[in-house]
Write a structure and sequence with these properties.
This protein is α+β, with helices and mostly antiparallel strands.
């Protein structure tokens, strides 16, 4: 394993701690009585506290030092004084352990008393500290200059998503996104449970990937010697439970679709689906808008949220626009009664990429997606989808060729999809067979025929309405994040590129040793002078270090500074 200079130094410190008999990774419980939050809420002078957290910064001034400790609730200032920590003759705990063997990022336990500094800051006077975990890698250290500009923040998206543990540590505002995410799930559960509906679990590994038009991930079960699919939706299993006698069931499910990745799509995502017997899609529209108003208020304390330049108002009711009306309004084209060829020709004429695998449903979906979706900013129900787009939906009771389906659009994106569910097994079989015909034409998102689901319908499913909500996309809108990666702890990433192995010469090591001796950036001229390298050797060594991102050179005001990257 290729280690950086800082990593080597931290391991050397670990060895010194071990030689001193200090276990840098102790196993015993460290009892905590306080948090940064509880201390600030119930602060009183000279109160004894015991807290643990990560050392995030420090300013050593001889026998005293101010530092910052961060726990799961926030940060607080701590004050280390040599004579408080080491009241006797032996000052090693402060002089050696604290000053030289601890690093930023180490996790420590602190016992002390509270006081207020002269500038009014709540502070812990450290009486004793315990090393709980030695950090062997340095945390990114952002610095703010006198103009308020932040330098070297941990802001690169790929690094942040790949190393979320670092992101959460050094960018505490990120944690609030995930706190709100959990609040949203809790709010939705409360809403459903209060309505009397029942939370269930259904299979992730399925013999037939049903319930949506999407390309599945395929795996193989060795003992049964059969192919299995990661679920693309849980719809057909939840409907089986309605057949079995449940009046209302819901599930938060991890779904998997082997499709493209972008700012609003991850191959693994979380959906919520709920099915309620004896209801239709009109009832479900009323239910959905009340649900989302409740969730928005629980998450943000208001029925409004900000997304980019838009203020979204989640307060019910929401406008209702049919898909036919939307397409006619934004393209001037009436899709009613049009043949597949007419739809194909129109889509092509307005610049939409089409091919021979696309049936009527796919063509209409492309036209709506390209020309209409982006116009719906405030929550809007798009209703009455063509039958070709909706193989699991009841035919419209009064409009020929349409179905009783809606999608909820917000800021040009779909976040909810709902039907009056198709419960006629004969009609359902015909819809599945139409999907199979599309599959034979090359549509790899067409649905399979699920014979067991058809058998379940033949036993009788009561009139039912179902709703699916993309939970990741919903929390994007509630937390003002345009990228789905921001609301997933660990989004899918491309394989990490191998770090190149760097052979450092003695000249490069000299420069690194000088920089390692300082916690702050140094004047470039001072580093060069202390290295005692000739101009030619200096140029070559410093160029090697900056090229390989081991050191950084930056200009602040008129001064050139060098520091470890």
């Amino acid at each position: 394993m290729q280690l950086s200079e800082q990593e080597i130094i931290r391991r050397e410190k670990l060895n010194k701690l071990t030689e001193m008999g200090i276990n840098a990774f102790p196993a015993e419980e460290y009892t905590i009585t306080d948090t940064t939050e509880s201390i600030k809420q119930d602060f009183s002078e000279n109160k004894q506290v015991k807290i643990a957290g990560r050392l995030m910064s420090r300013r050593i001034q001889g026998k005293a030092s101010f530092a910052e400790l961060q726990d799961s609730k926030g940060k607080i200032q701590v004050y280390f004084n040599r004579d408080e920590i080491c009241p006797g003759e032996d000052k090693e705990l402060y002089n050696e352990v604290y000053k030289h063997l601890l690093d930023i990022g180490d996790i420590i336990g602190i016992e002390g008393t509270l006081f207020t500094t002269q500038v009014g800051e709540m502070t812990i006077l450290v009486k004793n500290f315990t090393l709980l975990t030695k950090a062997l890698r340095p945390l990114p250290q952002a610095k703010t200059d006198e103009n308020g500009v932040v330098h070297d923040g941990f802001t690169d998206p790929e690094l942040r998503y790949r190393q979320r543990y670092v992101d959460l540590t050094v960018n505490p505002q990120v944690k609030e996104i995930f706190v709100k995410r959990t609040k949203m799930f809790n709010a939705m559960r409360t809403f459903f449970n209060d309505a009397g509906y029942f939370e269930v679990e259904t299979p992730v590994l399925q013999s037939i990937p049903g319930g949506a038009a999407a390309k599945p991930f395929i795996t193989h079960h060795n003992a049964l010697d059969i192919p299995l699919y990661l679920r693309i939706a849980n719809e057909l299993y939840l409907k089986r439970l309605i057949v079995g006698g449940f009046d209302g069931v819901y599930e938060f499910s991890k779904n998997f679709r082997n499709e493209g990745m972008d700012r609003t799509h991850n191959p693994e995502f979380t959906a919520m689906e709920i099915y309620v017997a004896y209801k239709d899609y009109n009832w479900m529209m009323d239910f959905t808008e009340k649900l989302l108003e409740f969730c928005a208020t629980q998450v943000n304390g208001s029925a409004e949220s900000t997304f980019g330049e838009h203020t979204i108002n989640w307060k019910a009711p929401y406008p209702r626009v049919s898909m036919t009306e939307a397409i006619q309004k934004y393209t001037g084209f009436d899709i009613t009664g049009k043949t597949e060829q007419e739809l194909f020709d129109f889509a092509k004429s307005i610049g939409i990429e089409v091919n021979e695998t696309m049936g009527k449903g796919k063509l209409i979906d492309e036209i709506f997606g390209e020309k209409c979706e982006g116009n719906f900013i405030q929550p809007t129900f798009i209703t009455d989808y063509p039958i070709e787009m909706s193989p699991l939906t009841k035919k419209h009771r009064s409009k020929e060729g349409l179905t009783e389906r809606f999608e909820l659009m917000v800021c040009g994106k779909e976040i909810a999809n709902a039907y009056s569910e198709l419960n006629d097994p004969i009609d359902q079989r015909e819809r599945f067979e139409s999907q199979m015909a599309l599959s034979e034409r090359g549509d790899d998102e067409a649905m399979f025929i699920d014979q067991d689901f058809l058998r379940a319908l033949e036993y009788g499913m009561p009139p039912t309405s179902g709703l699916g909500i993309g939970m990741d996309r919903l929390i994007m809108f509630l937390t003002n994040n345009a990228s789905i990666q921001e609301v997933l702890f660990f989004p899918q990433m491309r394989p990490e590129k191998a770090v190149p192995q760097i052979e450092l010469g003695e000249d490069e090591k000299v420069i690194l040793e000088i920089l390692n001796s300082q916690e702050e950036a140094m004047a470039l001229a001072e580093v060069k002078e202390r290295s005692q390298l000739s101009g030619k050797k200096w140029d070559k060594a410093s160029k090697t270090l900056t090229k390989n991102n081991l050191v950084k050179v930056e200009k602040i005001d008129e001064n050139l500074l060098m520091k470890l990257a």
